[in-house]
Sequence to fold (372 residues):
Amino acid sequence: MSAPACVPVELGPRRYEVLIGSRLLGELGTLVRAAGLKQANAFIITNAQVAAHYFDGVRASLEGVGFTRLVRHDIPASEEGKNWDEFSRTCAALLESFPDAGATPLVLLLGGGVVGDLGGFAAAVFRRGVPFVQLPTTLLAAVDSSVGGKVAVNFGGVKNIMGAFNQPRLVVCDLATLATLGPREVRSGSAEVIKYGAVCSAALFEQLERGALEKLLALDPAVLVDVVAQCVELKARVVEQDEFDKKGIRNVLNFGHTIGHALELSADYALTHGEAISIGMVAATRLARALGMVDDAFFTRLESLIVRAGLPTHFVGAPGLFDRIKRAMQLDKKFRDGRNVFVLPTRVGAWEQRENVDWALVDDAVRSVLDA
Ligand SMILES: NC(=O)c1ccc[n+]([C@@H]2O[C@H](COP(=O)([O-])OP(=O)(O)OC[C@H]3O[C@@H](n4cnc5c(N)ncnc54)[C@H](O)[C@@H]3O)[C@@H](O)[C@H]2O)c1
Ligand SMILES: [Zn+2]
Fold:
């Protein structure tokens, strides 16, 4: 292990560090102890796919620093498993494994965004909160979902509607784990990277345009650590200003997500999160263009990065999809009293929130991504 990059998330008493590097899981025990986590018990939430590659290493490393009891709990390996029933089963396993308040475990979340979101929520509610560590193993979880403390499950056909704010004590992002990730999942994670560039950082966007995108997709080690650290930095700075999503600042991270989330659920899991968000960013940018907020050049640049990443810009679904998306969008957590809210780009690296946008323009933007 070479020295990891370290991005602190400065949240006062909830401050923590995001460690980014290669082969960090082998040193996990040491890193956990160095973060001041002294537990002797661990509850590791993961899934069979990820565990097959990484669980033994994690266990050995934790046992090496004195963890005496390790319980592994698997959840399904897809978005379909990010639901209330799985959450409930996870809580039941926590209670069954650790019924004694004196033996509260450290919860470790080994996997992608699904494990991180569901597991972080279970850690939030078990005994009103037990410490947890994020161990992201997808590009998406590395650059986005493992940082910031939003944890949730889908419920009643709405993405992330049951959840909490619950910051991890530590994030250990071992980029070597991405070697076993399928190419579709790597592309999916790159959608969030493009998102950060498009609305938070012109420098990152231009770096991707100049060829870093292809190197990222090829998991070039130097580019990977640099880009992941930039994204985590960007997210950390946003979260520090608006931890509880009350000031509108954190909404920037939702670029492409209003239409994207609605599409993700309405498409019956045919799209990964990153794929749905790519299409959502295209639709949102069309909306921004219709509102005169961005020029055609912005649209072309964004679309071309999405295409270069091998991500979709439209989705041909079953009849009735438009109506399902519209219904799902009405339940968006940003909408208030029937007024819609969209995060829209103004130029590369900048954004504005628009409320009460003419629904006819929204409909046009949604329709524009639903045909070939
Ligand atoms: N909390 C947040 O702030 C936030 C931000 C963005 C996205 N999300 C959520 O994240 C979820 C998407 O996360 P995701 O894209 O990581 O998907 P995921 O967790 O479903 O993982 C994708 C697939 O990759 C497999 N996998 C994971 N790591 C692997 C590895 N190293 N080797 C081999 N296979 C591996 C998983 O088993 C799964 O089948 C969505 O539910 C989304 O809503 C949350
Ligand atoms: Zn996202």
